[in-house]
Design brief:
heterodimer; A: mainly alpha; B: mainly alpha; 12 helices; globular
Chain lengths: 92, 331
């Protein structure tokens, strides 16, 4: 069972690495931000799988904190992008 | 076999990410890569059987730093006078363009310093005895007297409490420095927050406060503590600011200052009391050690959270903004 968990974790990790393509290519900031946002979700899954596979129950708390905080950057990004749009409207 | 594949994938991608983010010309891309780097770092700590560090990395490295860095980028984009710099906030192509002569010297100096540091680290790892367990034995032997059952908390708040005292002092100093810069440009939009953000905030903020309290309490026997809890509480505060709920803005200035200094003050008071009683700084009596640690950590949690939120919003909360509820409702 532990092997299966580890394999699933590795598979998700490879998924993140494949997704890095979107971060590197862009082309817009939104693509990059959304990719990072989705990595947060995958990251929680990897951490919870590692908690089971390595028998470290404390890692569940790490997953909890990750799940709570990974959306903050995205919310900040959206608010700031709107602010910028409004700012450029004024300057135009 | 599968463990090895996991480890090698983590190590290679961590190094690759580090290189990508250092080499990124575009500041926004570098920030995104830094957030992802934090995620990988947390995974590495988890794999190394260090859940305490993984928790700190998840809370501070990956979670809050992203929002802090984005806020800094937005500010640096706006503080420039020219239109190009103004547009350069969040779009590709922004960033610091390297100058020539002065930067070259700095580069060379940095290269020498980094090679020196790397060499020292390699040398230190080389001369270390293979079965060296560090200070583990000394810590385990004194756990009974520490007042807590989590060795990491015992080291941070009891055996090496002096270091943690100074760390909280550094955080307070950072806030004072940022505040001394005067009014920094604000970047938040005047547009009222949408339904999604409001619902998200209403759902998440109470839960974040709960988890912050849980992490503080758990710190005595499991991974957790004031810094991790403080980062989660700070995220709740950042969310309140972003959703334009005027709770933090309505706090009187004196109260904010008092709360920001609370952690350092309480820590310092306890330290000087112990100095009076036993002649040694932060030398708790074993029977009361748990209670003292909880008191210090509770005060530190509030200060750390408030300082982080204040750093996000540029040292002070914007006064005179009309909270969302008092403006026109969202269409």
């Amino acid at each position: 069972m532990n092997k299966l968990y580890l394999f699933a974790a590795l598979f998700l990790l490879v998924n993140i690495i494949a997704g890095l393509f979107r971060v590197l290519r862009g082309p817009t900031s939104i693509d990059r931000m959304l990719a990072a946002q989705l990595f947060g979700t995958t990251g929680v899954a990897i951490i919870v799988l590692l908690a089971e596979a390595l028998a470290i129950p404390e890692l569940h708390d790490v997953g909890l904190v990750f799940a709570l905080l990974s959306a903050i950057s995205t919310v900040a990004f959206v608010k700031m992008s709107y602010a910028q749009k409004e700012g450029s409207d004024v300057s135009d | 076999m599968i463990e090895f594949a996991m480890d090698i994938t983590l190590v290679i991608s961590l190094l690759w990410l580090a290189w990508l983010l250092l080499a990124a010309q575009d500041m926004f891309k570098a920030i995104i890569l830094f957030i992802i780097f934090g995620l990988f770092m947390a995974l590495v700590w988890a794999r190394l059987n260090a859940p305490d560090v993984a928790l700190a990395e998840a809370a501070i490295g990956s979670g809050l730093s992203g929002a802090l860095l984005l806020a800094s980028l937005r500010r640096s984009g706006e503080s420039g006078a020219g239109n190009e710099q103004r547009a350069g906030g969040l779009e590709p192509g922004s960033g610091i363009t390297p100058g020539s002569a002065t930067l070259n010297i700095t580069h060379r100096l940095l290269t020498v310093l980094i090679i020196g540091l790397a060499g020292t680290l390699v040398w230190a790892a080389w001369v270390m005895p293979p079965q060296h367990s560090g200070l583990t034995e000394q810590v385990t032997a004194r756990m009974q007297r520490s007042g807590v059952s989590n060795p990491v908390t015992a080291v941070l708040l009891n055996f090496r409490g002096y270091d943690t005292l100074l760390e909280i002092g550094v955080l307070l100093l950072a806030l004072i420095c940022v505040r001394s810069l005067g009014a920094l440009p604000q970047f938040l939009t005047l547009r009222p927050p949408g339904m999604v953000l409001m619902a998200f905030t209403r759902l998440l903020v109470p839960f974040m406060v709960l988890v912050a309290g849980y992490l503080l309490w758990a710190g005595a026997h499991a991974p957790g503590g004031a810094f991790q809890g403080g980062a989660v509480l700070a995220a709740a505060g950042v969310l309140l600011l972003l959703a334009d709920i005027g709770l933090l803005q309505s706090c009187p200035e004196r109260l904010l200052r008092a709360l920001a200094a609370l952690g350092f003050t309480v820590f310092l008071l306890v330290a000087s009391m112990m100095l009076q009683a036993s002649g040694q700084i932060l030398n708790y009596t074993p029977a009361r050690a748990g209670a003292w640690i909880l008191l210090i950590e509770s005060a530190a949690l509030i200060s750390i959270a408030l300082i982080l939120v204040l750093l996000f919003s540029g040292g002070r909360f914007e006064k005179g903004r009309v909270p969302a509820q008092e403006r026109d409702p969202v269409q």
